[in-house]
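Q: For a teaching session next week I want to show students how multiple molecules come together into a single three-dimensional assembly. I've collected the sequence lines for a complex. Could you give me the predicted structure tokens for the whole thing so I can convert them for display?
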Amino acid sequence: MKTDWILTTGGQPLETVRRFIASVWQALHLEAMILPLKDARTAEWQTEVITDPDSIQLSNPFTPLMVENIARHLPAFLRKHPGQRVAALLRPCEVRAFEEIQSAQQIDTANLVILSADCLGTFPAEEFSWRLDKKGSADNLSDETLHFSRSGGIAPYRYRIACQLCRNPIADGGDINLHIVGVPVRDKLLVSANGLSSELELTSLSDRPATSEESEDHARIAERMVYRNQQTNLRLAHALTAETDLDLDSLVDQLNDCGPCQACLNVCPICTTREIQRDPDGQFDRQEVADWIVACVGCGMCEESCPNHRPLSAIFSVVREKLAEIYN
Amino acid sequence: MTANAQPAPKPVRQTPIRTYLRDYIVDILGQVRILKKVYPGIMHFLIFWGMTLLVIGHVVLLMQMALFLPFALPFPRGNTYLLFETISDFAGLALLFGVGMALVRRLALKPSYLESRWDDFYALLMLALIPLLGYLNGALRIIGTEPEWAAASPIENLVAQGFLFLGMTVETANRLHFPMVLVHLTFGLLFIASIPYTKLRHLVATPLNILLRKRGPDGEIETIADIENTDLLGAGAIQEFEPHQLLSFDACLRCGRCEEACPATLAGMPYSPRLLIQTLRDHMQTSMVTPLKAGSLNGNTPDIFGEDYNWACTTCGACIVKCPAFVNPVDQVLQLRRYQVLTSGKMPKTVGETLRNMERQGNPWGLPPQERGKWYDGLDLPLADPDRKTDVLLFFGCAMAFDERNKKIARRTVEMLDHLGIEYAALGMDESCCGETARRMGHEYVFQVMAEQNIEIFNELQFDRIVTPCPHCLNTFKNEYPAFGGEYLVQHISELLEEKLPNSRQATTSSEKVTYHDPCYLGRYNQVFDPPRNLAAGSGSTLVEMSASRQNSLCCGGGGGQMWLETDAETRINHLRLDQAVATGADTIITSCPYCLTMFEDALGAKGLQDTLKIRDLTEVLEIEKV
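A: Of course. Below is the structure for the complete assembly, covering every listed component.
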């Protein structure tokens, strides 16, 4: 039986997480970590590589903002630190993306430790920025999100479509997973580990093992979130297929019409593993597009980057489902 | 009132015993709400009392033998016994008469709101058969035992005389008596056994619901207590409703009074409070066999209600005050809305936009908060100062501050108060939305945050009372803020003006005929009917009432977030209400609510009646010079 552990937070979930990550760094003798950080000067969020665990203080895995899918940078990050023990702090969709990249490029990840945290959803950039204005700081903004982690987050209509459609917002795929869903974060956090548990003494880094009730509460609310997102998917699929004949062919036509713009392809982590060729007329190859959509992990960075604000998360999700039916 | 005091901890209301007793006597035994309609009221009264007296009588009869208890009752004897017999006799007659009235109603009168199902006829059949068998047994008893006091049961006696006339003998009577008692007993027990499976469940469920219902003012939506630690936000599946809400679904008798009063139904929308409750009830039944999955009511695809169903409700409360079983459909609508907004995300687009406006700009119009102070440009508005005590804290509300038409009302209100020399202070730019719209659109969290912010601001000031021209703000401050520790004396502007105007009857602009529209949140929810009327009907003008007024006033269609929801042009509630106003022959409609004002202006424009009929706020008809 997989054991989960508890970190008591004493009303300070964010500080507890930061301390925990720093303690993991020490225990594993990490040399570098890639994660989203707030730039001290500009207060903008960006992906950075840190070599000093003190910089973890500038991080906040619960910030409801996703600037890019970090998985796309991991191969280069690993190449820059050959033979060194390094870590990455990833959202569940980034973990999924990295799994795709890893299987496509056969990357050796023996020295990579993936830390992942449950994600309650992220706001579109514009919404994030006015909410940030109201709350004063990103920590305050994530505090409000954390308040409702116990019930799996509230008012999902505010988040990015990709987040509302997310097929699994729970951190299951990392080496060390931080759980907030179904957990009263003012009192505690739930931590689980895959594989590293023999090496990493989570017993000493945490406060106590979790009771089965605590694990079950998390699992129950997690299941509810997944179910809710599935329902949103169904609803969207219904609406989109009722109004349009959305399928692979119409999608390829649409992409062809986009002209030279490659914004969505440029930010997509899956596109780092393959070249989506365009012929001399700029037309896409049907099979390549199909392979791409099937491998999509639903992070929604494409939609955020589209200059025409097309609802790509929804479109890709529907086409992906249709392709899955065909392939099965 | 509680100036500068720490906010009180959330009060736990204990219902005093005398309230339960009052409910029992007035609403369960007296059935005053049923009696609001004369025919069914009398009909039910007869059936109820006929049956109750007979049941009590039978218990007394059974206890004449030491059957279930080790003793027999030593009463009634002598004249008391004769009285007992007579009462029982007439009780049966009352019951049969009531049943007769019911059959006539269902078969001949057939009012439009009455639904007839098999169990309606089953119940009437049993309620006729059992007393008829009772009379039969009574007649057989009289024939068999030939008592001297047979006349004490006049009807049984009459039946007995009838049987004798038809040739029945004493021996036959004696032979038939016991078997017929068994038949009577069988039907009686069948009646009782069928209670859970038929409409007869209301014998248990309805009195229980009347006693165990949510207490507190009608204008208060149930709070989600401890919202950060609650698993369940709203109800997406039937099991997610509170137990007392589930009980209310059983208590509903499908009488249809709610549907008759509902503005959405009357305007032609596919929504009906009766259908809502009955659908919920059906699902409650089904779920006992197969638990329904989360979101099965309105979060899934397909789902039972559909995304738009519960958004037709204006939360006007007409259904709440009409229901004789004290079912509250508005609370259930809110449960569904909360689920949609807070949990599933499946809701009309305009809801999300309005809620985003409230979060971002602090008002449902989505106008920049900096514009809140524009309306009093050029006016010397006295602003509240924490160091200075004032009588009235005047809270204008978002409608008065942001809506063009209502800004004029706000200015006029200030002029009037200044002219009257009333001591007041306003919050100016520090005023923020009362949060009522957010709550009624289902976003309980935004509401709670706004409420707590406002209470913090109020508690820093010193005032005797909050007065507001907006009935929605009034309702929320008065009935909903106490749950968050904000207890204040709250009044509507009309109450303040009535108090301060020396001779209110002289104060109005002369007009031949005026009619007054009771805003739901002022009248029905907070019982303020007369102050605006006293002010509106001055010398030289006659006040005519619309067909639906005061407690029964028909909603303007603007509440419950409707102002920001898209409604089909064919089913506009405000058009319906305007028709009612036109029917009075009045040339001015007066009201005292910014939403009602907007809805009427809208309807006047849509129907092209701007030149024939005027809509005015109360403050616009009061002549300042005259006050």
